[in-house]
Amino acid sequence: MNSPVVACIGLGGNVGDAAGTVRAAFDALAGLPGSRLLATSRLYRTPAWGLTDQPDFINAAAVLETTLAPQALLAAMLGVERAAGRDRSDDMPRWGPRTLDLDLLLYGDAVLDLPGLQVPHPRLLERAFALVPLVEAAPDVLIPGIGPARDALARMDAGDIEALTYPEPDVAP
């Protein structure tokens, strides 16, 4: 059995009830074998990136302690995407609309360059929509070979990222 590793996952979506889908994905990640959800960020409304002519995204981050190997974790994450209705077929535009997108941002202090899996995520340092929730969920996380994620975020413009607030549920006295 593998020793537990702390993995950081970026979540996002902009089709259907994206906020509900991201919240359900938190639960699905918590239920992965050999895994425990340690922290989540708030949800954030962010402008589309890459292919910008589409609805805003809802983004978040999750911190997961897992004994799954990186490739097994990625496969499990893709299963969570499929269960949420994600279509990754070749005819779908890159960075286009999606019900759910899960990105393995960090896997402990590993630096991996494997077919279909690069960690740290290769575009993490370009994406405020990933770094803002990541730094909220894991304020002291280090990006291997780079340093503190909060320092990388401080060098970015995150002014168009809006934290979503929700009313507290009614609690009977």
UniProtKB/TrEMBL annotation:
One of its GO terms (molecular function) is ATP binding. Gene3D superfamilies: 7,8-Dihydro-6-hydroxymethylpterin-pyrophosphokinase HPPK (3.30.70.560). InterPro entries: Hppk, Hppk_sf. Signal peptide: none annotated. The keyword Kinase applies. Its EC number is 2.7.6.3. It is an enzyme of class 2 (transferase). Residues 94-105 form the 7,8-dihydro-6-hydroxymethylpterin-pyrophosphokinase domain. One of its GO terms (biological process) is tetrahydrofolate biosynthetic process. It comes from the Bacteria. Keywords: ATP-binding, Folate biosynthesis, Kinase, Nucleotide-binding, Transferase. Pfam families: HPPK. The keyword Signal does not apply. Transmembrane segments: none annotated. Pathway: Cofactor biosynthesis; tetrahydrofolate biosynthesis; 2-amino-4-hydroxy-6-hydroxymethyl-7,8-dihydropteridine diphosphate from 7,8-dihydroneopterin triphosphate: step 4/4. Catalyzes the transfer of pyrophosphate from adenosine triphosphate (ATP) to 6-hydroxymethyl-7,8-dihydropterin, an enzymatic step in folate biosynthesis pathway. Belongs to the HPPK family. This is 2-amino-4-hydroxy-6-hydroxymethyldihydropteridine pyrophosphokinase.
